[in-house]
Specification:
- The chain has 12 helices and 13 strands.
- By secondary structure, it is of the alpha/beta class.
- It has one domain (18-289): Metallo-beta-lactamase, Chain A (4-Layer Sandwich), CATH 3.60.15.10.
- The strands form 2 sheets. Strands 4-5-1-2-3-6-7-8 form an 8-stranded mixed sheet. Strands 9-10-11-12-13 form a 5-stranded mixed sheet.
- The longest helix has 16 residues, at 259-274.
- The chain starts with 17 loop residues before the first helix and ends in a 10-residue tail after the last helix.
């Protein structure tokens, strides 16, 4: 661990508006209704001018291919779910704010272009060459060298599969996730790691617009992202803390998770939704279809 660059988060005090109520684990521990009420009240007092912070923010949505998988892999409901196959996106997001380019997750490795199949979970993954990271960024006249910061939800291939394209990047990850013994992605030794503790809510730009919060369950060090937008209010990018909307709506667990921790995530997301936030489950096709694909963007 001595050779790891540690960048402690100095912004412990969160935005006084939306984010403070939504992400605080204490609020959700003591009651989701109280959390929802405080978040809603904060949103009502937030003017568009204050919400904008320093300059315009743009969000670009990308797909790093699609996976075809039994619905029961993501939501264990009944035997029919194990026989019903669904097509699910494998998304990532680019944020432009304060003159910086920041990625939340980075998508699949190049070999998924050829297609991969996992026999044990009957999952097929396929990515068009236009969806591979270098070609996706090219839609915005960007290259991997233009990326200032990478925020990773966790270290699984469909979320962190092309780290080798960013050998000198600064990558924000939970320390717990970094220290897991099993890694499923290639990690360049030259990466500049920003390791944050489980208890920390990481305010990326220091203005409350983009905040990372801890959501263990899918993996021990998983994190999700909250973004305050002008057009769509607060968007919560759950990643694999909630793969399908049915997970949070019906408390349906995926095959791969820690059940108690995952149910806590679902309760948190339901409270956020009641407060008017939009939850984007990590692989839900209907949820992601509501937003345009890059080069289009939202503000």
């Amino acid at each position: 661990m001595d050779d790891v660059t540690q960048k402690r988060v100095s912004r412990r005090t969160f935005l006084k508006g939306v984010t403070a109520g939504a992400v605080s684990m204490g609020l959700y521990t003591h009651g989701t209704l109280r959390a929802a009420a405080e978040v809603e009240a904060a949103q009502e007092t937030q003017t568009p001018e204050r919400a904008n912070g320093d300059g315009q923010m743009k969000l670009y949505f990308f797909y790093s291919g699609w996976l075809n998988v039994p619905r029961g892999y993501f939501a264990q409901e009944n035997e029919q779910a194990n026989q019903t196959f669904i097509d699910c996106p494998m998304p990532f997001v680019l944020i432009e704010h304060k003159g910086k380019h920041v990625l939340f997750d980075i998508g699949n490795p190049e070999n998924v272009i050829e297609g991969t199949y996992s026999e044990w979970n009957r999952m097929t993954m396929k990515m068009d060459i236009s969806e591979w990271m270098p070609n996706a960024l090219a839609r915005l006249n960007l290259t991997t060298e233009d990326i200032d910061l990478i925020l990773l939800s966790h270290l699984h291939p469909d979320h962190a599969g092309c780290l080798e394209l960013f050998p000198h990047a600064t990558v924000v990850l939970r320390r717990t996730e970094y220290e897991l013994p099993d890694r499923y992605v290639t990690v360049p030794e030259t990466i500049d790691w920003c390791l944050i503790e489980d208890s920390e809510n990481y305010d990326v730009f220091g203005d409350g617009r983009v905040v990372l919060f801890f959501t263990p369950g899918h993996t021990a060090g998983h994190q999700s992202m909250m973004v305050r937008t002008q057009q769509h209010g607060v968007l919560v990018f759950a990643a694999d803390a909630c793969c399908l909307k049915a997970n949070m709506d019906d408390n349906l667990l995926p095959v791969y998770c820690t059940p108690e921790a995952e149910r806590k995530n679902y309760a948190r997301f339901r409270a956020m939704e009641k407060a008017g936030m939009t939850i984007l489950p990590g692989h839900d096709p209907q949820a992601w279809a509501a937003f345009p694909v890059a080069p289009a963007y939202i503000e």
